[in-house]
Design a protein that fits this description.
The structure holds 2 protein chains of 2 kinds. Chain A is of the alpha/beta class. Chain A has 3 domains: about 160 residues, 2-Layer Sandwich (Aconitase, domain 3); about 100 residues, Aconitase, Domain 2; about 170 residues, 2-Layer Sandwich (Aconitase, domain 3), CATH 3.30.499. In chain A, about 30% of the residues lie in helices and about 15% in strands. Chain A is built from 16 helices and 19 strands. In chain A, the strands form 5 sheets. In chain A, strands 5-4-3-6-7 form a 5-stranded parallel sheet, with helices on both faces. A 5-stranded parallel sheet of chain A has the order 17-16-15-18-19. In chain A, α6 packs parallel to α8, α13 crosses α15 and α13 packs parallel to α16. Chain B is an alpha/beta fold. Chain B has a single domain, classed as Aconitase, domain 4 (Alpha-Beta Barrel), CATH 3.20.19.10. Chain B has 8 helices and 7 strands, in the order βααβαβαβαβββααα. Chain B has a 7-stranded mixed sheet. The chains are: A alpha/beta, B alpha/beta.
Amino acid sequence: MQTTDTAPRSLFDKLWDSHVVTAESKATPAVLYIDLHLVHEVTSPQGFDMLRARGLKVARPDRTLATLDHSTPTLAADESGKRPYVSQQAERQVDALRANCAEFGIELHDFDSDQRGIVHVMAPETGATQPGMTIVCGDSHTSTHGAFGALAFGIGSTEVGYVLATQALLQRRPNSMRITVTGQLAPQVTAKDLALHIINRIGVNGGTGFVIEYAGSAVRQLGMEARMTLCNMSIEAGARAGIVAPDEVTVEYLRGRQRVPAGADFDIAAKRWLELASDANAVFDREEFVDAADVRPTITFGTDPAMSVAIDAVVPAPRTAGDRAALQYMAVEGGKPLLGHPVDVVFIGSCTNGRISDLRAAAEILRGRRVAKNVRMLVVPGSAAVRKQAEKEGLDRVFIEAGAEWREPGCSMCIAMNGDIVAPGQTAVSTSNRNFEGRQGAGARTMLASPATAAACALAGCVADLRDLRDEREAV
Amino acid sequence: MQAFERLTGRILVLPQENIDTDQIIPARFLTTTTFTGLGEHVFADWRYDANGAPRPDCPLNEPRAKDSPILVAGHNFGCGSSREHAPHALRDFGFRVVISSEIADIFRSNAQNIGLLPIVLPPEQHAQLLQMDGEEISVDLKACMVTTRGRHTDVDFPFRIDAFARHCLLRGMDRLDYLLSQRDAIRRFEASR
């Protein structure tokens, strides 16, 4: 596994090699240095308790950044300032993060911060996420940050404690996979559709043990927010991390953001970032090729993210007991189309699709139209900055006038632990990342799709193909 | 962390593939700030119906479940969320070993970190164990071997596990001391960049 200085290296090799403090041996894993540790209220309290129990300090508070997202209400505070927490315990969890950050000197973005947001939305948009970094967080969707050419992966709470204490982790070098997406995505096909297509191709465990590099012309053509969507979903194929090599798109996205260097220092940093790419003859443990022309607007019909079809296709006939259980849970039939299947809830948001470009895509479909009477639609911006920008563009008015609820930022209905839930037996089309049984509430049924597809379903009141939307708005 | 050397006990089989951590512990139980008592909620939506009544067809509700320290689960166990609450809930319920033909990366490392032994066996051997619900087997971490003198077959399945994870589990040692011993190297690394 050791590479020499002259051997061609992949982007992953470069990221890994440049963060190894102590090389791995048969007896011990590598000590891997962590540049940025992102912290939220759900998976960190036990890590801070570990520090207290051992009498330790946070090694690098300056490399630690905290936000509130998972347990937070998305309804505003009342006049007295009280927020509608789902439970006292949820509120206590938020209070615990405040107390821990105060005690250990960590920067926390609380409700009053214009930088607060879902951890995987706020860190990139403030420029905390930068190419070449190692980034961890007690959250599996940390893979999102790989869109910048960073090695970013989710960890457990014990490891949160380890990183707080030492700014390092013990890790075995994972395998590397490259997925090259050739050609060009069709205009109404998004990064979410591509992600679902890839997961369907390689399976929910296809990436287990691997870090995936996404490459090829179709990936190069994606904007940064779309690349984040793609890398975000890597974990849904079992891969802890997904990466895209930095290019001019990356540099232009980062230019001028709060936490990146300014002036001449930015140009120096940008030059370094652009050197982060796989060498021409780099060797990968596995290579996959996807033709972008094969990707259509995609939606899931089952209970794991690999169980998806093109929106106008029929649900595949079940082959295993697991398939049958999934179809039964979802109340869909093999061999029948999904189009027209009744939808009760539409959720736009999450670390997968809660950014401004996602809200714009949904608003574009909804503008001047009404959400079907039978549908409850929730739009939850991924961060305070996304919310502010959306309001500046009038997107909030588009959503509200269409009949959707416009909320405060947070994870909301994606993980459904803050009270934003889908009722038992209801079907939601969601722009989030997981369609597991009960993910959006006990007994809830989830179909994953892009923001545009979700918005089209909201209008139709059933699973609908956005390409079939007639523009009757002119006539009204 | 409790040390693990050798254990003889009964198997409980959950044959479903791709059991994700949302099944193991639904997100609504994650507002806790500790890891204590999570066994009460393990597989909550498999064990209880919407009214909170135990589902009689769920093997985890059988009296033997609390007395079965070895979970044999379908392919790709523990996929999804990084919540360490999942291995803690299994451990608190009474499981000390999880065996599958594939275990998701983050779940596996979390399990090792908290003293729940994850074992991956080849598909044929795993398939054999899936047919042995309720039978007694032995798991020996020193010998890296799963053995049983079964009703129908004898089983001697060697397994592989990361040497450092094995070292830590055998001694009931967490990894923090080792990482703390690397602090000078970490500071030198920081200074060299």
